Amino acid sequence: MAKLANPQETIAVLQRYQFNFQKKYGQNFLIDPHVLDKIIDAAGIGPEDFVLEIGPGIGTMTQYLAEAARQVVAVEIDKNLIPILEDTLEEYSNVELINDDILKVDIRKLAEIYNAGQPIKVVANLPYYITTPIIMGLFETNVPLQSVTVMVQKEVADRMQTGPGTKDYGALSLAVQYYAEPYLVANVPPNCFMPRPAVGSAVIRLTRYETPPVEVKDPSFMFKLIRASFNQRRKTLQNGLHNSGELQLPKEKVAEALEKLGLPAAVRGEKLTLSEFARLADLLGE
After folding, report:
1. Low-confidence ranges of the chain (pLDDT < 50)
2. Which domain range does residue 231 map to?
3. Predicted confidence (pLDDT) per residue in 242-259, tens digit
4. Which of 24, 45, 84, 194 could make an SS bond with 68 (beta carbons 3.0 to 4.6 A apart)?
């Protein structure tokens, strides 16, 4: 089987199977070998590794992963792609296909079966509409993870790695940076995909922290505070936390905590660092 990273080969496979792109699955297949090399390189895939691939499409990246790794499990939601994948990957004995929704797959069990329960590497070209639920699902469910190297929408990659006071800074930035160290690998223009997406993309690697960079007594309470403070970005932190249906904290209690942190009463959530949110959560959780 020829390499699918060649656009002519991709077109031939799609025509052979009369495949129609499904808008609901946000399908855009990579057709650039340089980008594929960068992904494999950034993910640090070696002959000892077990890799979980999310959304293999027609198997373009899967071929590269299979050549670099010990074992690959590829989870594809679109049942119409399974016969294509069985064809394009038939030469690789180290690839297992699963036709399912990644949000319903027991990843911990896969890590036990294929990697003796050790932390795994995840690689994905994620559909843009479901990027955040997939990434947060991987972190929050505490599956054994070493790193997640993903292709996402450019602005989502920007949000994941930005700091306080910028327009891209928000709940996703803080959540990702609590669990992992983000590293932008490459920006990827629309012409590297078929069909071309309307927006630019980027590859970002998230390396899981063994212990989070900040200590907080109750992480889930901290994330409630973070969500509430960004739900109404234009409001002050006091108003955001007071008006949140999840929290309804008295304004004077918030004001008192902000004062203890040395922050102005009218501060907005977008100005606080992760460690300030952690300290605020500890104060308000008492």
Report:
1. none
2. 219-285
3. 888 888 789 899 999 999
4. 45
